[in-house]
Design brief:
Layout (H helix, E strand, L loop, with lengths): L4 E5 L4 H12 L3 E5 L11 E3 L6 H8 L7 E4 L15 H21 L5 E5 L29 H13 L5 E7 L1 E3 L10 H13 L4 E3 L7 E2 L1 E3 H12 L4 H4 L2 E5 L5 E2 H11 L4 E4 L4 H4 L4 H11 L6 H5 L2 H9 L15 H6 L7 H14 L7
């Protein structure tokens, strides 16, 4: 069998980075697409392409005749993050980015077999209302909330008609992994917040509100393995034209996992001190620079390290919520019945990623 050639779009992000690493370590030829280079390439070929530029996309992807799979994890987010999720230009830009890449790629790649497309629990309106519990993949009311997911899904469904390739859509919950400057990766802002407190001789104070937000996480490497399974021989038939929720398999509450996070960072748990990270962290850029210098970290300055994720931290920790926040839980029965049954303890996942950032010199050692 010929060596697979896999295009991973959004390779500097949490999901794309995990997928690039997995396929490259499998011995596949991987083309990693992102404007910023990923932290490591694992032998993949990196291409810096602006997916909002159709001409650049035609030049980059129009000659890729041997591509067998596409993992599309590219994402456009606006400054401030959450307000943009319901705005028309956010939806239109994300739709065009997929089209700009896929039109020339699909025309050139006669052997294309599988496309993995990323959605999330915003598909259930979790960012604007209480969702049905547990949220399931096939409910008629989903498309009532404007979302770029529907535009991308409609496009890929239409393009697949009469073609030999298949698609699978994944809806993960909160994703944790390795990425710098990502829009939604909570390891860097939590890590910076902790380092600032430790530098002051403080314990790890809990910054969330009085609410109890019950939610699920997914390890980026586990999600990458689910995407690989969907395009492999083992999962191809079961995953063709299917949509899957994907999580670690357990649930968590930030307040309850906080001791494990503190321990992973070499700290003890402090008081409950609700505060907005979007407001607090930017003012600490110079203090973060001093920590980087003192520990010899390879982590970048605050803004390129945290990206928009301090806004995302506020969204999930709800520091201003005056009362209990509704749960956001999804069913993963469909994925498990279809043949992918991996799971991971979420506390172990937090320890894994904070340790990985420490080993990479992105956070101070434990």
């Amino acid at each position: 069998m010929a060596r697979e050639h896999i295009v991973v779009a959004g390779a500097s992000g949490v999901v794309g980075y995990a997928a690039m690493k997995l396929f490259a370590e499998r011995g596949c030829r991987v083309t990693a697409v992102s404007r910023r280079p990923p932290l490591h390439d694992f032998g993949a070929e990196h291409m810096a392409v602006d997916l909002q530029d159709p001409k650049a996309c035609r030049e980059a992807f129009g000659g890729m005749s041997d591509v067998t799979r596409l993992v599309y994890a590219a994402l456009y987010e606006k400054p401030g993050l959450m307000p943009g999720w319901v705005e028309t230009d956010h939806i239109d830009t994300n739709r065009r980015m997929l089209e700009n890449l896929f039109e020339p790629l699909s025309a050139a790649a006669g052997g294309l077999r599988h496309v993995s497309l990323l959605q999330g629990t915003k598909a259930y309106g979790a960012h604007v209302r209480q969702i049905p519990l547990p949220a399931r993949e096939h409910r008629d009311e989903l498309h009532a909330q404007p979302n770029f997911y529907w535009e991308q899904e409609r496009y890929i469904r239409e393009r697949q008609q009469g073609q030999d390739w298949q698609w699978t859509i994944f809806r993960p919950q909160l994703i944790f992994g390795m990425a710098l400057g990502a829009a939604m990766n909570l390891i860097p802002p939590i890590g910076v917040y902790a380092a600032l407190l430790r530098e002051q001789g403080e314990p790890l104070h809990y910054p969330g509100g009085p609410s109890t937000f019950v939610i699920e996480a997914v390890d980026a490497d586990l999600l990458a393995r689910a995407m690989a399974w969907a395009g492999d021989e083992a999962g191809q038939q079961a995953a063709a034209s299917e949509i899957f929720n994907v999580t670690n398999g357990d649930v968590f509450v930030w307040r309850e996992v906080w001791p494990a996070i503190a321990d992973a960072l070499g700290m003890t748990v402090g008081e409950e001190r609700p505060q907005s990270m979007a407001q607090a962290l930017p003012a600490q850029a110079a203090a973060w620079d001093a920590i980087r210098e003192r520990h010899g970290l390879r982590a970048p300055a605050l803004e390129p390290f945290v990206g928009e994720s301090h806004h995302y931290m506020d969204f999930t920790f709800t520091p201003d919520a005056p009362e209990r926040t509704a749960a956001a839980l999804v069913s993963t029965i469909h994925l498990r019945r279809s043949g992918f049954g991996e799971c991971m303890d979420t506390e172990a996942m937090f320890r894994k990623w904070f340790n990985a950032y420490q080993q990479e010199g992105l956070l101070p050692p434990r």
